[in-house]
Design goal:
The protein is mostly beta strands. It contains 1 helix and 15 strands, in the order E-E-E-E-E-E-E-E-E-E-H-E-E-E-E-E. The chain has one helix at residues 131-134, and strands spanning 15-21, 24-29, 36-43, 48-57, 60-63, 69-76, 79-86, 91-94, 104-108, 114-120, 142-148, 153-157, 166-172, 175-180, 186-190. A 4-stranded antiparallel beta sheet has the order 1-2-3-4, with no helix packed on it. A 4-stranded antiparallel beta sheet has the order 5-6-7-8, with no helix packed on it. The N and C termini lie far apart (40 Å).
């Protein structure tokens, strides 16, 4: 027997909801490099909405399970940028590679932030991210890398042989799991502890 409680009533559409903090829901507009979109924070206790991340072209985010950090992608003047942001929205680090948050997974926050990302070997000139990726107009051949807050980038898999365009990344029990967009199969990569 489930009890439902109305949190708030909104007349809005095309929002992506992320409920990663106990009393906050993040509302993100659908991303496109062609226009600016933003992210708002909905406090379910106070029933208030306020801007959380400043609007930017191509803005897309992916939170870690704890809600303490997120990956934020923007595409301003065709400059693809991926950063790590803290739970308060402040930028912590600029990542030294271009990929989308959908192609990454945060594996630890404490004692040090570390993450794995599928990084395209190349992005064809004229590719409009995140639009072309999200609509399936483009596919990549990815390498898998590990990044830690100290700035170290380690290649953990080179996409040689079987082309991999990774999505739906998860990490658990020393395994990195992903779905390959080319064949829709589940792959597993041993990453140790």
């Amino acid at each position: 027997n489930l009890k439902q409680t109305e949190l708030i009533r909104l007349a809005a559409g095309d929002f992506i909801l992320s409920w990663v903090a106990p009393k906050k829901i993040y509302l993100a507009e659908k991303p496109s490099a062609r226009y600016q979109s933003g992210v708002w924070s909905l406090d379910i206790t106070k029933k208030t909405i306020e801007p959380f991340i400043e609007a930017a072209n191509g803005l897309t985010m992916r939170w870690d399970a704890s809600g303490k950090v997120a990956l934020k992608f923007t595409n301003v003047f065709e400059d693809n940028t991926l950063v790590v942001v803290m739970g308060d929205g402040d930028t912590l680090a600029l990542l030294p590679f271009a990929t989308l948050p959908e192609k990454c997974v945060v594996v630890s926050v404490e004692p040090e932030i570390s993450l794995y990302c599928a990084v395209p070997r190349s992005i064809r000139e004229g590719t409009l991210l995140p639009d072309d990726y999200l609509t399936g107009a483009v596919r990549f051949s990815d390498d898998m890398v590990k990044w830690t807050l100290g700035g170290a980038v380690t290649r953990v898999y080179e996409g040689v042989g079987v082309p991999i365009d990774a999505e739906q990344l998860t990490a658990k029990n020393g395994k990195l799991r992903l779905v390959n967009r080319y064949d829709h199969k589940l792959y597993s990569i041993d990453i140790g502890n």
